[in-house]
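U., I forgot to send this yesterday:
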Amino acid sequence: MRKSISKLFGLATLSLTIFATSCSSDDNGGSNNDSTFELVREDFKGDITDGTVTLESGTYKLTGKVVVREGAKLVIKAGVTIEAQSSSTDGIIRYIAVAQGGEIHVQGTASNPVVMTSVDKFPGAWGGLVLCGKAPINKGIPASAEVSDLAYGGDDPNDSSGSIKYLRLEYTGYAYNSEKEFNGLSMFGVGNGTTIEYVQSYEGSDDAFEWFGGTVNAKYLVAFNGSDSVGDDMFDWTEGWSGTGEYWYGKRTNAGNRGIEADNNSNNHMATPISNPTIKNITLIGAGDSGSEPQAIKLRVGTKAQFDNVVLSNWKTGFDIQHDESVGYVSTGELKATNVRFDNVTTKATGKDTAGNTVDISEVYTENDNASGAGEGTEIPSWALGWTKGL
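Result:
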C-alpha cells in the first residue's frame, strides 16, 4: 500500500512538472517570466504590467496597442517579426509603447534583425515604437506624449528605457489627424541609460526618428523613403534634446521633406534645457529640388547643435537657419557644422531672422571635400549592410 501511494505521488509530481514547464515555455514561441501578461502569438496586445515577457521566435500578430508599464520588461529575441494587422476592419490603432519605468530589450543581430512591420505594405499603416522616459525636457513636467498619452520627462538624465539593437521599423506613421501622428521611433524624454543602435525606419509616413527632449544617444541609424506617399523629415528633434548622434544615413527618392528638422521650443525659443545635440558622421541624400521642403538641414526656434563630418547630397538647400536665437548661435559658434561636403546642393546655406529678413549665416559651416559622412560618403555604409532594406 505504501509503495503504491509513493508511485502515485511520484506520477503526480511528474505531471505537475511537465505542466509547469509547458506553461512557462509557452506554445506561442515566448515566455512570461513572473508576468501576469497573457502572451498570444496570434493576438498580441495589451498592457504588460509586471515581470518580463519574452518573444522567442517567429511572427507575432499585433492586433492592438502593447504598452510596457513601469516595472515590466519586454524582451524581443533576434529574428522575431511583429506584424501589425490591418486596422481597416476594426479601426483599432496598433503600436508598441514603453511607459516611464518600463523597459524594452530588442536583441537583434546584423544577420538576424528584429522586424516590426505591417500586413499593409504602405506608409502609415500602423503606429510605430514609442519610448517615454524620465530625462529632462523643456515643455513642462509631466508632459503627455502626443501619440500614446503616456507621461514623459523628469530630472533623471541617466534614465533607462532599455536597449534596442538591430531593429527595422516598416510602414509606420499612422496619423490620427494632421497634428497627431506617429513616427518610426519616437523618443519622449528618453535618458542616456538607454541604448539605441542599428535601427532603420523604412517607408514611414511621418518622421523616421524624432526626439522630444531627453539625453539619449543614438548610433547607426538609417532612414529610407521612396514611396509615392510623401514622408516627412528623416530626423527631427525638439523640446531640449541634448544627446549625441553618430553614424546616421538618410536617403529619400520621393518628394518628401527635409533630412533634418530641428527645434528647441516653438512656444518659447529660450526654454531650457536648450536643444543642443552633437551629431557626427552623417550622410543625408535628397531628391533634388522636388518635395515641399527640399532642405538637407533646417535649424530653427532656438536650437543649438554641433555637427562634424557631414555629407549632403542632392538637395536644393544645405543649411536653412531661422529665427533670431538660432541665427545668433551661429555667430557665437554654438551652432556649427565642420568638415561638410556638398554634392549637387544648389544653395549651401540660407538664413532668416524672426522678422523674415534674409541674413548671412554662411559661417555656420566649414567645408572638407574628403568628408566621409556615415562612412562611405554617398554610398551605403558597410555597417548598414545586411539588416536594412530599400537602400
